Amino acid sequence: MYLFQEVELDVTTTNKRVYLPCNIYRLLDVYSALGNSDSRVPYNMIGSFISLSLDTTLTSVYIDYYGVPIDIESGDPLIIRGHEDACFWYSMYMLYLVDILTDKISIDAKNELRMNKDNAILAAQNFSARHMDRNKMNRAMAIKYNIIPKPAQLKLIKTYNT
């Protein structure tokens, strides 16, 4: 996942909804002013959008989130080199899932699909350790050793990392 910061989104005028990007994995912060920890906006997350209070006067908000990396020009998801087989075999497995569940393909074909999918995913997981640079290790250690924050004192992710 990739950390997206300070993404500006419009608030709809009629029902005060903010539609989220399609590549979102985990929403971290919703706020109204850049770099201001006190500008956090209360919201309710409802699937593909967040709902703000109906009496809000905001026309836009900023969000920080973890999401699938995407190509800016085409909008296509980016896949780490070496993970292509895992994506291929997972897609093949999901393509035949209905046939697997309804016994329309043989046991051997089911096992072959499942085995190829599982092996490719394991290979991709092991391959991921190669991409662990010192920056990622430092970030993981910072999370590990700062796991218990002070209650109700969380700062915005952008303010925290700078």
Explain the overall architecture:
With 162 residues, the chain is an alpha+beta fold. It folds into two domains: 78 residues, no CATH class; 69 residues. 35% of the residues lie in helices and 21% in strands. A hairpin with a 2-residue loop joins strand 4 and strand 5. The protein is extended, with a radius of gyration of 21 Å. The mean pLDDT is 86.
Task: Looking at this protein, list some descriptive labels.
three-stranded antiparallel beta sheet, alpha+beta, 162 residues, 6 strands, 5 helices
Biggest β-sheet strands, sense, barrel: 3 strands, antiparallel
Structural class based on helices, strands and sheet pairing: alpha+beta
- Number of helices, counting only DSSP H or I runs of 4 residues or more: 5
Overall number of structural domains: 2
C-alpha end-to-end distance? 20 Å
Overall pLDDT: 86
Concise synopsis of the structure shown:
Helices cover about 35% and strands about 20% of the residues.
In terms of topology, how is this protein built?
Layout: E1 2-10, E2 17-19, E3 24-31, E4 44-46, E5 49-51, E6 60-67, H1 84-95, H2 97-101, H3 107-128, H4 134-145, H5 157-161
Antiparallel strand pairs: 1-6, 2-5, 3-6, 4-5
Helix pairs in contact: 1-3
